[in-house]
Amino acid sequence: TTNTNNNNKAPSVVVHACDDKGRCIFHPHIQLRKKAIMGVLGGWKDIRRFCPDCERQEIIHELIAKEANEIEQMERILDQMEQLDVEYLNDDTDHGINDDVVIDVANSNMSGSGDGSSYSSQRNTATAAGKGRGGLEPPDPPSSRRSSMSSKGSKSMERNPGRVEKMEEQRQQQQQQQQQQQQ
């Protein structure tokens, strides 16, 4: 590109480079300047301030760079979310919830008398028993993160099919440990 002053001998703005006939050096079929017929010293007159083909290519390159940047950013975000999801799945803490109490309440509700009042009292008992740590409520699991991960999870499973098998093995091991503890 050339940057010149404002005396009509050359373009007054930054334009794409021109050859000695006033054509774009990248697209010789585009005339950017022409010789001025009138004028004290002659010189060049601007026909176009910029080459439309060069401008189009520049816009395309900017869009491609922007899209590549957005894709890279989304991949980083997905990797971070996947890492957090795996950490949550591998978390062994029960957050103060006693699974035995929840199972007992669920079983008693299934064989319950059928009126709604007993269900609510049993539910309150289970909730109070489940708190277990000084009456504090257990933290809610990150359900919003799980729901947002559901669409991404299938894609990550496609990328890493071994992960599904590993998660299934972990579930089976946990079930076996629970059965051994019950016996």
From TrEMBL:
Biased composition annotated in UniProt, kind: Basic and acidic residues: 155-171
Region span, Disordered: 108-183
Compositionally biased residues, Low complexity: 108-121, 144-154, 172-183
The name this protein goes by in its record: Uncharacterized protein
Source organism per UniProt: Skeletonema marinoi
Native organism taxonomy: Eukaryota, Sar, Stramenopiles, Ochrophyta, Bacillariophyta
